[in-house]
Structures are given as C-alpha cells and as structure tokens.
Write the structure tokens for this entry.
Amino acid sequence: MVVINRGAHAEPGTSLEFKTGNWRSSECPTHIHAKAPCHAACPAGEDQQAWFAWLQEGHVEEAWRELVSANPLPGVTGRVCPHPCETACNRVSIDTPLAIHNVERWLGDEAVSKGWAYPVEAPAEDAPCVAIVGSGPGGLSAAYHCLRNGLRAEIFEALPEAGGLLRSAIPPTRLPRPALDAEIGRLLALPGITLNLRSKLGRDVLLDELKHSHAAVILSPGCGESKEWNVDGAVPTDLHEGLHLLREFMDHGQFPEARRVAVHGGGNTAIDLCRLMKRHGVEQVTLVTASALPGPDTDPNDLINVVPRELEEALEEGIEIVEHATVKRLIMKGSRVTGVEIVALKKLLGTDGRMHRIQFEGTERVVPVDMVIPCIGERVKADGLHNLLNRWHYLDAKDAWSRTDLDNIYAIGDSRGDRGTVAEAIGDGRLAVQAIAANLKGEADPQADDRPEMPAAGLNKVYFGAVKRTVPPKLPVGERTFEAEIEGDIGRLEALREATRCLSCGNCLACDNCWVMCPDNAVIKTAELAKDGSHYLFDLDYCKGCGICAQECPTGFIQMKEDTWHEGD
Amino acid sequence: MREALEGSQAIARAVALCDPDVVAAYPITPQTHIVENLSKLVAEGDLHTEFVSVESEFSAASVVLGAAASGARAYTASSSQGVLLMAEVLFNIAGMRIPLTMTVANRAVSAPLNIWNDHADSMAVRDSGWIQLHCENNQEAVDTTIQSFKIAQDTDLPVMVCMDGFVLTHTMEVIDIPTHAQVRKWLPPFVFKRALDPSDPKSLGALVSPDFFPEVRHSHHAAVDKALPVIEKVDASWAKTFKRDCGGLLTVEGPEDAKVGILAMGSTVGTLRTGLEHHDGPGAKLIKLRAFRPFPADALRAAVAGLDSLIVIDRAISPGLGGILGSEVKSTLYGMPNAPRIHNHAIGLGGRDIPESIVGDLLSSIEDPDAPAFSVFDADLSMLPPEDR
Amino acid sequence: MTTTDNTKRVARLAELREKFGRHPVEPQEKHYQGGSQRDRQPRFCGLESGHRACQGCGEALAARLVMECAGPDVMVANATGCLEVFTTPWPQTAWQVPWIHSLFENSAAVASGMEAAMKAKGKNTKILAFGGDGGTYDIGFQALSGMLERYHNILYVCYDNEAYMNTGIQRSSSTPHAASTTTSPAGAERMGKRHLKKDLLSIIAAHHIPYSASASVAYPADLQRKVRYAMGIEGPTFLVVHSPCPLGWKHDSHVTIEVARRAVECGLFPVVEVERGAVANVMPIREVRPVADYLGMQGRFGHLMDPNDPRAVEELTHLQALADYNISHYNLRGEGEDPADTAGITLVARDRAAGES
C-alpha cells in the first residue's frame, strides 16, 4: 500500500525499482568476439589483433607468447611472409595497413635476444611420438605443436642442416642466417623434439617403418624439384631452371655467364633469382609473368604471388617485369637461346565455367636474351614417396587437418601442391598435430574457428585517426649485397608505436564508449575482467535497447542481437 | 519598545526580528516601503540575510521557494499585479508544502490601473492553498508577521499576511516592537524536515499521476483546515508572552443582544468600529475576520448566532457573482437554523475612502426591502451611462 | 548536528543503500564501495537507471554526464520538461542528489534561492539549474538573465533539443531554421520554422559572466571538462548541451551520438567557450561536412531533401550559409590536426590500465 508523503517527495535512486529492460523491442546489445581480418587472413593461424593488444598495453613478452601460441617462428615469418594479414588489415580504410610483419619480426628477434621461454612443457617420457619428415617450416611447426599438445616429435631431415627451403631457397638478404639459426635452434632445443639429420626418406628411413614405430606420420618434404618446362616441346640444351640456379648460387656464389636474362614465372623464387642475378651483374633481367602487378583494380586472384615489398624492391633495383604475358616461343640459334617471343595473356572465365589462360594473337614481341630461366614452380621429389604422389607430383591431403588417404599419415605445406607460403606450412603443421592429438585421445577433430570476421564497415572509424605507418629503414639499392639484410629493424619504440595503430577489430579495447554513452546507465564497468574478456557488462534490467553502444563501439565488439533476456533473469 | 513607525517600516523591523535567511522581493507600490526598509536594515548591518533583488515578482516567489526548500527561513512581499505574476509560483509553493511568509500589501488589480487599496490581489489567489491572515492595524500586522513564521513551520504551509496598502503600509502609528531577544525566545529556529540536503538527497516536486493526485490534493486541503487550531494556538502563545493578541481566527465585539452584525476584514474593521461608536441607535455586533484561509466556519457560525441580519463587507468582487467574502459567509451559514439574513456590500474598491458615516448608511440599508443581495455600496451609479449601470 | 541525528542519518543511508544499491553519498565520501557491480562503478552516479526517457535520449545522456562530474555535493533545480518528467514519476526518482522541480520558467530563480540559502547557512554545496531549450531560450529566459546578473554561484545547464519535446515537439526559439515541428509544420505553403535559432550564447555572454560554453553529447570528454571547469568557478556559469531527441528530430535511437556529432562537424552547432564575454576557445572542425550530411539523417528536415523542389533547395542552401557563417564567425576551421578538434577529441586507445586490476 502506497503511503503518500508530505508534498509528494521521492527517495533517491528509487527509479531502480522500475526495470526499463522490458522496453526493448527486439534486440539487445551483445559482445561479439569477431575475428579481426588479420587473424582471419593468417595462414599460420596467428591472432595478430590479440598480440597487438598486449603490445598496446606494453606487455611485450606476453605479446610474443600470444604470437607463438600459433606460430613458433615469428623471426622467420616476419621476414619472409607475404603477410596477407596486412592486405586484409581494416586500417586500409583509414590510411595504410599496420606494419605487422615488421613488428612480428621484432618480437621474434626480441624473444631470441632476451631468451624468453616458449610456452611449452616437456612432454611425458612415454608420450606418443609423431614422426615428421622434413624440417622446413611445416615440419618445425608440427614438432613445436606436438609439444604444445603433450606429444613428442621426431624429425627426419635428409640434409645436414634443418630449415628446408628457409635455408636452401631464401637468400640471406631476406632471411639472414643468424636469425634463422637462432630461432630454429631454440625451437629444436626444446625437450621432446628429436632431430635426425641426413635421414633421407626411402634411403635411411622408410615410411612403412615410421607408420609402425610412431603414433602418426607427418610428411613435410617440401617441393624439391622444379616442374617440367618447355615451349611447344622446345627446351634449350643449356637449360637452367630457377630453383636449381638459386640453390647453386647460395652454395657456391656463382651464376652461369649471361648478359640478358628472361625469367619465366611469378613467385618468390623467381623474384629472388631476378634480384640476385641483377646484383651479380646481369645487365638486363626481365620477368615474364602471367599474373598482374598490384594496382587499384587488380583482382586478388590475379595478383602476382610474391611478398609485396620484395616486388617493390625488385622494381627499385631495375628488374623489368612484363605482366599478363607468357613465353610463346624460344628463338634459338642452334641449341642456344637468342631471344624469347612473349605474348600477352590473361586468365579469363571460359564457357565451361573454368578459368583459362587466353593468349591474345597479335601481341607477340621478341625480347633478345641469352638465357631463359623457367621458374614456374616446384613439385615434390619422389624419394620414398612414389606410391603417394599424384600425377602432378604432389601429396593429396583431403582436409584442413592435412589427412591423406592413409591412416595416420598427414601431408602438409608445399608438398600438398595447394600451398605456397611458409605461413601456410606453419598453419598446416599446427592443425595436423591438433588433429593427431585429438585423435589419440579419441576426441573429434578440433572445431574450426568459425567466428564471423569483422569487416571495415563494422567499425566506427570516427574514433580512429590517421596515423602514419612506421617504415623501417632499408638498404639503398647501391648498397645491397648478397648477405646484408635489406629491410631494417623497426625497433622497440616504433614497434610499440605501430601497435597503437591497431584498430582492435571485433575486440574490446576498453575505450569506455559504451559505458560513457549509455543514456540509461545500463553499462556496468568491471574492475576485473568480465567472463567474456571485456570490462563491461550490460545491465539488461535497464537497457532499453537504443543501440547507441553498438553504434559507437569503435571496434564492432558490441552488436545488436536477438534479445534472449527475460525479466527477472 | 513603543515607537512611532510607518507600517512598512514596522513590518521590515518585524521581519528582521525573525532572522530570515533569505529575503527576495521586487518593488511594487504599495509594498515598496517594506523592501526598502529591509534593504536599509541590511545595508546598515542590522539584518544579516541574503537579500535577493530579483528581476520580477515571479522570481521573488521562486527564490523564496528555492530557499525555503533548502532549509532557509524565507520571506517576500508584494502587491496587486505582483501577486498575480507570482500566482503560478504561489500555487506551487503551497502544493509542495513549503513553509514561508509573504506580506501582501493589498492593492486593486488593473485594469484600469489603480495603485490603491482593496483586496482583489489576495482574493485572486485564495485557492492557491496558502494560509491568508488579514490585519486590522499595524500592531497586528507586526505581531501577525512574527506569528506567521511559526504558523508556517508548524503547518508546513506558506502564510500570506495581508495588510491594506497605503491605509496601513504608509500610515505612521505608535507600535510596540518586541526585542530581538524576546522574538528569538518565542520563535524557534527554522526547521524544514524535507529540506534539500546532499546527505539525504530527496527529490521534491515529483510528477504525480491520477493514481495519487486526489489523495495529494486532499492532504493539502486537510492541512490548511488543520491550520485553524494552530493559528489560534500560536496567537494564544503570543498573547501569553507579549500580553496582546491578534484575535485568533475572528473576534466579535458589540452588545451581546445586538440583532445586526457587520463582518469585515483588515483596516475597514477599525473604520467601522469608530463609526459604530459614533452611531446613534441600536448597537450592532462587529465581527473581525482574521483568518480568511483556512476559513473558520465553526467560529463564524458561533459568532453570528442570534443575529437577524449580517452585513458582510467585501473589499473585492467577483464580477458576475458579487462579493467573495459575502458568498463564502453565505455558503458557510447555509443550513444553519435561524441563520441571519446576509447583506453583502463591496466598499472602498480601488482605495475609495471609507468614511465613518458609512456605518449609518449600511445599517439603514438593511431596512430597505428592495435592497439588492449585493451592491458596490459606495458606487455612484449616476456617473455611469444607463446601459452600463 | 547532534549525535542522535548523525546516527539516524547513517542508519538511513545504510538502509537506502541496502534497498537501492548505490545510494546517497556523503558529500565527502566519493567512493562508496557497495556490494554489487553497480555500486562499485568508478564514477558518481547522480542520475540512476530506471528513468523513463525514450530510447536513445540525448538529454538523459547529457544529464547523466553532467551529474557524473558535478556530484555529489550539489543540489539541482530542474525546470519542467522531459528531464523532469522522465526522472521523477512519484513515488520514484532517478536522482541521487537533492533535486527540486518547481515550474517551467523558474529553475534559475529557484536555484537562486537555493544558492542564497547555502550562502546564508555558510555551506559550499554547489547549485545546478537545469532546463530544456524551451525553459531556457524562451519561458525561463528572464529568470536566467536575472540569475546571471545577480551573480549567483550557479551552473545553469540547458539541454538543448531544439523544440518543446515534452509537450509534443512544438517549435521553440531554439528550433533551427526550416525544421518541421508540430507548430511549424512543413506544408504546401511553409518550409518548417520561418525564423532563426536564437543565438542564446551571445546573449548569455553579454552578461559578462565568468564562463559560458556550448557542448555536445557527441563529445562527452569535452562536455565533462567544461562541467568540471564551471564547477570550479565561484559565480554564474552557463552550459548549453546539444542533445538530440530521436522522437522529435525523427532519427533512429542508435544514431543519437552520430547526429550530434554531425551537427558540430557541419558548423550548425558551434562548440565554443566564452569567458567574460569573449570567445576563449572553440572546438575546431577537422573536416567540415556539408549540412546535408547532418540534416539528411533527420525526419524534421526531410522536406529539404527534395532536389527537385526549389524551395527545399533554397532552405538547404540557407542552412548551409548559416553553418558557413558560424564557421567563419567563430573561426571553426582548424589548422591541421589537433588533439582537441572534432576528430582528435574522439580518438580512442586501449586503456592500458584496464587490464590490470
């Protein structure tokens, strides 16, 4: 029974008895942990947004630990990865993408110099052991993730040193050997990983044996030989193919004599080769590629598949690149090449619904050269794997976990034929091991991360200003040699500054906007982390569902979703 | 101490004796001398108060509202148009049950413009829910002013002390002004239980829906009604200390057996008293009504018992009805056995002088069987064109 | 105060806290640590949840923001209007500070009385007066002028939503030119309000008071800085806060902030600070928007959006000219990036302290 007081006055804060939460008509604000596009785009599975968040809070080692929870080789990928994360970065809608690779590299180097311990524990003595064939990035990643999943790893490497293509096919100007050695060395020294060098599959160890001696086998042999190449059946007698030339040069520092060279292909090997030859003294180096150079209208599927900055540097260094073209005919004098006829070409959709490379008659021209170098890709060397290779000389992997048709045998990285980057190999290694671990425990395959991705349109860009991207120093063209790393170190100060550019797409950055802008005082700030990892709770007893918090959330972390609240909840 | 003082000056002194925390006022004739005198007291250091010289009567009322709601003893004064400009706030103050005091130096309300005395202003706000007390002379005005602060805080109601403009405000009389010590002893410090206070932050002036409004209104009505005994008690207490009273709710004078009575409010009472003293013929009872709101129905019925005729003097009219006081007296006596016949006249509108001789005219008028139930008694209708009479 | 009184009061505070969560704080007790999350908010809550403002109410937000940095040692006089009605339906109130509503046009005068009372009692409690644009630009204008002239120690805050919203969206002298309201409807013969928005701030400034300013709910940090600044001044101060009304302006409730922001960015609502009559500071506009960006979001200007109606084009151009005038009059065009300009002041960064409890 209401008792009316004198003058009808009211006691403070009594409106709390009136729950305005039932005013919401359909939707209520919800914290949605969407994937940041960098994370979604990372083949290695890194959550760049997550580790940038640690950096934004000034916790460098935590950032590194977050990073290596997916990728144990940041010092390597920070140098060699074509960083699709940067391509995907939503900051492009404001100014320029974050310099993710520079910061990643710095974090990797920082961990090496500070000796930070990898977030792994030694596996039990009797833990199941996974055999890993090949010690390239895929194999190394697989071995590392074995430890993270409580398994032991035994690596079989044919060569006398670990590293795979990181060592054999990437010039030190991109990946200095000390950096490579330090990171790989720390990884291989982890307890629970055994490395057998000079153990070649088919010669020193057999797949059948491994199948029986180990809990599972991960094949990570890489692609050790070049694809066959000819032009209408013609092959120069002194044919030098790209990967071979590159390896020879890295071993002996020599190229065959040539003044003018045409390289046919469009990958990192082709670019590396072009640049090394140019630097070695070849007057004219022409790259003929069917793909396109990056431009505002370039279809991503048509884009030349090389690290963007490598491409830039190549152009700086005077490499001529002929895009959308192919070698149509070799002009021979006897068995020697004197020129190549090139023709314009594009990938177009045919009437059969598939993409075809169409050459355009009448666009032919001749480029005089005295050497033509095919660099059109590599395939798996058959050693010990004859029965498993498909007709294109790759290993068939059936699913995201890299299973093959054979039980407990997984094929990862370049050897799958549908990969092409170090990061992909690293991601494959992690996923394959996660599947193996689940399998051994009798569990289902780990769930894929199917969270939605946060598009640039989901951000409120009002709250982010344009901030110039940090560009670390580079060696001037004239000073570039065969050893010194071309791209410089970003350094601590700039790395931390660059981290502040991260938009935290889809994740709370504790900006307080929701808390500050709620007209109904229905956002509660928590001192400790709330269950969902943010610092805010919605008091749905009072939230009227106006949607201001979602609209003004800079990162898209708050979204209006179907209301499942009932009064009295 | 007895001093010869102008009414307004005396009121200012009385107010000062009550230690008001906040005084707010806007000048209007004939209230001006009150606020001038208060200002002077402040300027001379004889009164320590926050004197807020507002930009309108509307703000004057609003300021005292805010001040009293904040726990301050507050005072204002006005007249005529000023009272009407305040009207919205006056209702608000009363509805919020905020205790404070206002002096109304009664004056006619324009148009036509007229600055002289009648009761049109306070009558216009009779339904605002204030207590309204009328004073016969300046001694009563001084005493009632001091009493009003006590009545206000004892009832949680605002009190309007009505005194006739010019007739009282501008007239010099010998007045017994109590000492500060006496008043401090008699009048307790101001207390307002619902005062705004950060350590107990109430909200005043809430929106009240139809679910509760009639109850809130009733409680206001009941509160004003219940102020009747408070007014009497306070006057009695005053009399005990100061050896004089202001007549409680109403007073009755004259021969016990008189068959005719005259009822009036304010300074007119004094004129009528003198007139009766000088009038030859059968005596008449003189009823001085001090409390107009609350209206002392029971006291009035007792006062008129035995009368055949009652002349009710109004100092304001409600055009189309007649006398306001007359109508209220009639309605009060309705159904009373042997109720006197009511003769209702408005006199002295707009400051028209009321001569003592009017008593004879009034008394003889009741003999006229054709006399109208109401008249503007001292109006010379011959001055009006026939169609406007 | 006697010991008994004090004991009683403490008991009463405890009782209120028990019942309503965070409850009345002693003026000197700023951080009451209660039991619930709601109690432990690191800010003063002067305006509680449970009030009846519409979804996305700009005025409710503005009042909440003002109270946060004004309270708890304040008392509020509130003019009649939405803010008063939606916060205090008896027997409830959303206020956690002493609050009084008297009438539409007298909040400045009531506040004057409250301030006089505080002075008389020797207390330092600051008095706030709140009004909408109707209660400030129009009906309460005289009382406000008087309050400023008498130099009361009061912060007057006008929540400007540019029409009489509580009575159903009637035009006020603050309604912008050409806006359609229920008493200035657009029709065959009329293009909304025929008159201009009153330049209240200049009139206020002419009172030569220590400080007056405009602010917007789109820029809470700026708004709160101004409140804190004004709170520190002994004397009359005035703040007008641009507060969108989704119902009256006819926009979706979730874009309240965006609409307010655009009003500033296009120049129609200049955010400025005036000290002793002189413009002391302005919020520069980093990138000036066309007025159509702001007007186009609101139904009240819908009649101006028809490019084929020459009258619409004329009024739109007129509004653009008014915005351009403001920009030039107050010199709102920034010179390069400025952390205090319309873009700079909104920037967010991860709260480094948030992760550390």
About this structure: The domain at 250-388 of chain B is CATH 3.40.50.920 (Rossmann fold).
